[in-house]
Task: inverse folding
């Protein structure tokens, strides 16, 4: 890696962090281990109060550290973008990891395909409690290439540790939306998807850490920010009419997924409200997963729903909560079917982010 500050790097790596002193050294080491040398590392410390500053000092001149008052993940990323000097920008949250060939493979793709503005890749999800268990992101989402805007509004298909973006795109679409406290990356990828092609590298190039802190995002916050992202997406001019006819389907799926997730958590009144909204927007949602069955239970009232689930468990059969299935939100690093791994709790990766 070139450490001469007079040499303009080809790639700028932006790592936002907040109170992740225990994780950020491993994230930085994974960037230092890249086979590609023409890069700079910019760590934005978003007001950490733990030992983050101390652990960052240990890296000396191998990275640039920018400290700011606590402003949130989007603002931290934007600070890094403004400071970046590279032709291409890549983002890594401070609790995630890159594999050594990540940057070189993505640079080669961007160099070879000028019509492509963003390149992403496969990611493995792992849990601190069971680090040997790895789940590919492709288990949760398809990974299309090309003009993928219709895909993006249905689901955030881009794993958060993997995008590399042409710098000039931020001049065209703007910076991360600092008014969003979740789903801010999903919003950005949608905006980029409007103006260029997006390419997928079919190799595992990153590892996505799941742990207690980043599982704490409440579903209400994720839902409200996701709805704002969708409102922005469908309110923007669409001269190509790529999104024509998708609005009702996308919004109804969003409500249905959250309704099923809330049912799983025992929040029956909210689940009933969300599922009614879903099927009102699109009656076909009654045939989506187990929406009809779950809604029927919720319509009986919270007390009846609790009794039915208790009876199901007592009978030794699968818990009705499985009806929420794999698409239910699992926390700030969400596997939500419409917002895969988009939001991170503001208490985490800078969040931390």
Result:
């Amino acid at each position: 890696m070139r450490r001469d500050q007079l040499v303009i790097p080809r790639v700028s790596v932006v790592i936002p962090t907040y109170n992740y002193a225990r994780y950020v050294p491993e994230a930085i080491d994974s960037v230092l281990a890249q086979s590609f040398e023409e890069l700079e590392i910019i760590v934005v410390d978003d007001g950490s109060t733990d030992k983050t500053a101390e652990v960052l000092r240990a890296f000396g001149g191998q990275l640039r550290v920018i400290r700011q008052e606590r402003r949130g993940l989007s603002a931290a990323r934007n600070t890094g973008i403004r400071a970046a000097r590279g032709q291409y920008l890549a983002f890594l949250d401070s609790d995630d990891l890159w594999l050594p060939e990540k940057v070189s493979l993505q640079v080669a793709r961007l160099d070879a395909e000028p019509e492509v503005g963003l390149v992403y890749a496969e990611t493995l999800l792992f849990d601190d409690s069971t680090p040997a268990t790895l789940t590919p992101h492709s288990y949760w989402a398809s990974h299309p290439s090309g003009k993928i805007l219709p895909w993006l509004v249905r689901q955030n298909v881009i794993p958060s540790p993997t995008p590399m973006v042409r710098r000039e795109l931020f001049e065209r679409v703007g910076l991360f939306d600092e008014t969003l406290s979740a789903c801010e990356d999903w919003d950005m990828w949608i905006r980029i998807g409007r103006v260029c092609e997006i390419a997928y590298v079919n190799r595992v190039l990153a590892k996505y850490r799941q742990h207690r802190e980043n599982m704490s995002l409440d579903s209400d916050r994720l839902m409200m920010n996701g709805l704002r992202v969708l409102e922005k997406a469908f309110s923007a001019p669409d001269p190509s009419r790529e999104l024509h006819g998708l609005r009702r389907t996308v919004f109804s799926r969003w409500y249905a997924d959250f309704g099923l997730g809330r049912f799983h958590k025992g929040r029956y009144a909210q689940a009933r409200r969300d599922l009614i909204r879903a099927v009102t927007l699109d009656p076909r949602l009654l045939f989506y997963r187990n929406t009809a069955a779950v809604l029927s239970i919720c319509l009986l009232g919270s007390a009846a729903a609790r009794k039915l689930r208790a009876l199901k468990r007592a009978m030794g059969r699968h818990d009705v909560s499985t009806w929420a299935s794999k698409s239910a939100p699992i926390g700030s690093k969400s596997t939500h079917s419409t917002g895969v791994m988009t939001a991170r709790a503001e208490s985490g990766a800078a969040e931390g982010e």
